């Protein structure tokens, strides 16, 4: 992934790249997300691990990162005889996109503020007029 904003704007980014761009997710996280999206049913960690051909613990860490970002949801399934397990499924895309739009708006406002601060700090005409009037 490109580092600077100008490099990002010039790169051929896919929509799935937003997972990495907005939340710093890793390629494995993206792969796990894709597996969950393609599945007709919620999946267990073991099923996700098998689908991405990784150890259970590795898949679990990726799924935890996806949970933290809100891209997927976790549901507890109870056994009749006691005990339970969890299954994972993708969150409604509208909820995810609303959150990404909110983050983008916050980022845009922050960048606008920083640009204004830059202009105020480095505006030569303002600095020169302050020096001349002294």
List the main descriptive attributes of the protein structure presented here.
134 residues, 2 domains, 2 strands, ArsR-like_HTH, Tscrpt_reg_TrmB_N
What structural category do the secondary elements indicate? Answer: mainly alpha
The radius of gyration over CA amounts to 22 Å
Tell how many strands the DSSP assignment holds. Answer: 2
Which of globular, elongated, flat, extended, rod-shaped describes the shape? elongated
What's the number of domains? Answer: 2
CATH class of the largest domain: Mainly Alpha
Please give the CATH architecture of the largest domain.
Orthogonal Bundle
Protein name: TrmB family transcriptional regulator
Pfam families: TrmB
InterPro entries: ArsR-like_HTH, Tscrpt_reg_TrmB_N, WH-like_DNA-bd_sf, WH_DNA-bd_sf
Annotate the secondary structure layout.
Layout: H1 5-10, H2 17-23, H3 27-38, H4 45-52, H5 56-69, E1 72-78, E2 84-90, H6 93-122, H7 124-132
Antiparallel strand pairs: 1-2
Helix pairs in contact: 3-4, 3-5, 4-5
